[in-house]
From TrEMBL:
Lineage, opening ranks: Bacteria, Pseudomonadati, Pseudomonadota, Alphaproteobacteria, Hyphomicrobiales
Cross-referenced Gene3D superfamilies: 3.40.1190.20, YjeF N-terminal domain
Function noted in UniProt: Catalyzes the dehydration of the S-form of NAD(P)HX at the expense of ADP, which is converted to AMP. Together with NAD(P)HX epimerase, which catalyzes the epimerization of the S- and R-forms, the enzyme allows the repair of both epimers of NAD(P)HX, a damaged form of NAD(P)H that is a result of enzymatic or heat-dependent hydration.
Name of the featured protein: Bifunctional NAD(P)H-hydrate repair enzyme
Pfam families, alphabetized: Carb_kinase, YjeF_N
Membership in a protein family: Belongs to the NnrE/AIBP family.
EC number, as in UniProt: 4.2.1.136, 5.1.99.6
Residues that bind K(+): N63, D123, S159
Species of provenance: Aliirhizobium cellulosilyticum
Length: 498
């Protein structure tokens, strides 16, 4: 059997390339289709053993071919089958035509399909390959299935969902489960496609790993394969400076909590030392709340320059609760040669002239990490944000290249991108991460990884993943303080695995 490289994601175009490469290497393409169809039938029976009828909706391409093979298998197993085709199946070509001949039973036009109680719909219309808005006929079928409330098993991807972006193209099925082949597509992980797929199964149909890897591009699921080789390990020769000194900048006295969350998360994530750089008017408020985190008064550019010159500082976090304006811009520009996580107010401070920020960090290895949510992304990259032709990974990558930075484009489907072309989609973040202060905790986690020597993209990806793991430990009623507190346990679990 072939090896399923779980973190690799293939776009629809890349999956088509893998199919071609398989055929060119001597693997019979119809054999792949038959195995795909068999997998669909097996999934249908395992998920819906009480189905009265399987209604197989077949499209005009290879996705439809998978459906015809599945229909034959299910019929041979004694199931009641109804097959409906989009277009004339006699016009099918290649493997899809062979699959139709293998079916050998009656086929009704798709427009005649009416869902019945007890039906399970097998959606083999388009899969991930659709690149245009669905027709009114297809939209009508989708609507009738939704009204009937019958479950849907999607083949490859719910028809109507763009396999690259996860966006519905006019209308899309909402599947109970989805079966795809060899690897998932970005559309399986990006919203709203993720919410339309239901449970996702990945079937091995026999394409070798070498072909999947050769066909693949730069998009993957975020996880340890990306960054585990860079994880810091605490050994007998470790000391606090070797583990890095992280500096987090605090805002004024009424807005100090966000920076403290970042600082505590940085300490829990393994930074050897963490110092909170505070304006004078916030020193008392911060001192009253800190124990292991150190405190340093930094009010002016001159004080910051003196600190940079005389202290062993490894990385910085600026933005949480800091305030928007010229002071933030001046501090960031003073840090242009240092590893920096720029978040929240720090990002917004450059909305009027983002090029100042981008130009400051263009030299050397990537050492800036930007962590925008949708609104902040639009402030720094308004033209990219407004381009509806781009997927979220496309937008993050364009932004990374423009900014000379690793981008953490936050959301329920957070995307991490590097100027060198690598993109990772995160999947382990539970929905309860949508709580006040969780972004401040994330900034501190990423800062800690930068302080410990991880490159910017790896630090960003590891921080986002650890953030999700800590949230899982904290549970659905967590606060940001709980999340920061669990960072150390999540970090210990990660290190123990490698």
């Amino acid at each position: 059997m072939a090896y399923l490289p779980s973190n690799i994601l293939l776009t629809p175009e890349e999956m088509a390339r893998a199919d071609r490469m398989s055929a060119e290497s001597g693997i019979p393409s119809f054999g792949l289709m038959r195995r795909a169809g068999y997998a669909v039938a097996a999934t249908a029976l395992s998920h819906f053993p009480a189905a009265v009828r399987f209604a197989v909706l077949c499209g005009p391409g290879n996705n439809g071919g998978d459906g015809y093979v599945a229909a034959r298998q299910l019929a041979d197993g004694g199931a009641e089958i109804s097959v409906h085709a989009l277009g004339d199946p006699d016009d099918l070509k290649g493997d899809a035509a062979l699959a139709f001949q293998l079916w050998g039973g009656s086929v009704a036009p798709l427009r005649e399909f009416q869902p019945q109680p007890g039906d399970v719909v097998i959606d083999a219309l388009f899969g991930a390959g659709l690149s245009r808005k669905v027709s009114d006929e297809i939209a009508g079928v989708i609507s009738s299935v939704e009204r009937a409330g019958v479950p849907v098993l999607a083949v490859d991807l719910p028809s109507g969902v763009d396999g690259r972006s996860g966006k519905p193209l006019g209308a899309a099925f909402k599947a109970h489960c989805t079966i795809t082949f060899m690897t998932r597509k970005p559309g399986h992980l990006l919203l709203p496609g993720k919410s339309l797929c239901g449970d996702i199964e990945v079937a091995d149909i026999g394409i070798p790993r070498r072909i999947i890897e050769a066909a693949g591009g730069s998009i993957s699921e975020n996880g340890p394969p990306i960054w585990s080789a860079h994880l810091p390990f605490v050994g007998a020769d470790s000391h606090k400076y070797r583990r890095g000194h992280l500096a987090v900048f605090s805002g004024e006295t009424s807005k100090t909590g966000a920076a403290r969350l970042s600082a505590i998360a940085g300490l829990k994530t393994g930074a050897g030392l963490v110092t909170l750089a505070s304006p004078e008017d916030a020193m008392a408020a911060n001192a009253a709340q800190l124990t292991a985190v150190m405190l340093k008064k930094v009010d002016t550019n001159a004080e910051l320059s003196d600190w940079l010159e005389n202290a062993k500082l490894s990385a910085f976090v600026l933005g949480p609760g800091f305030g928007v304006g010229s002071r933030a811009r001046d501090f960031v520009l003073a840090l242009k040669d240092s590893p920096l996580v720029l978040d929240a107010d720090g990002i917004t401070s450059f909305r009027d002239d983002p090029a100042i920020l981008f130009d400051a960090f263009e030299d050397g290895e990537t050492h800036l990490v930007l962590t925008p949510h949708d609104g902040e992304f639009g402030r720094l990259f308004p033209d990219i944000a407004a381009d509806e032709t781009l997927s979220k990974p496309d937008k993050a990558l364009k932004a990374a290249r423009r900014a000379h930075a690793a981008i953490v484009y936050k959301g329920a489907d957070t995307v991490i991108a590097s100027p060198d072309g690598r993109v990772a989609i995160n999947t382990n973040g539970p929905p309860w991460l949508a709580t006040a202060g969780s972004g401040d905790v994330l900034a501190g986690m990423i800062g800690a990884f930068l302080a410990q020597g991880l490159p910017a993209f790896e630090a960003a990806a590891a921080g986002v993943y650890l953030h999700g793991e800590a949230a899982g430990l904290a549970g659905p009623y967590m606060t940001a303080e709980d999340l920061a507190g669990q960072a150390g346990h999540a970090m210990a679990d990660l290190v123990a695995r490698f």
